[in-house]
Write a structure and sequence with these properties.
mainly beta
Length: 84
Amino acid sequence: MGLREMYAALGRAVQGAPRVEVEGGRLVIERHRGVRAYSQTCIRVDCPDGEVCIEGEGLTLEALSRAEVAVRGQVQQVRLEHRR
């Protein structure tokens, strides 16, 4: 497999994966399917491959659109739970 084919395969593999960006007390998730659960200590975001689980304190939804979910607060843990 050449370099071009490897990049194409990598692009297909991450195409449906969520993109998570953390900066300071703000976290943004792109490529989501909506919020499944919400509290000040846990926010669960549905994504094509599973759920992104954000745990922390004082969590709030700063923005919610088709393009992204933005969360503010003291984020302590972020994990991706894959679908089976």
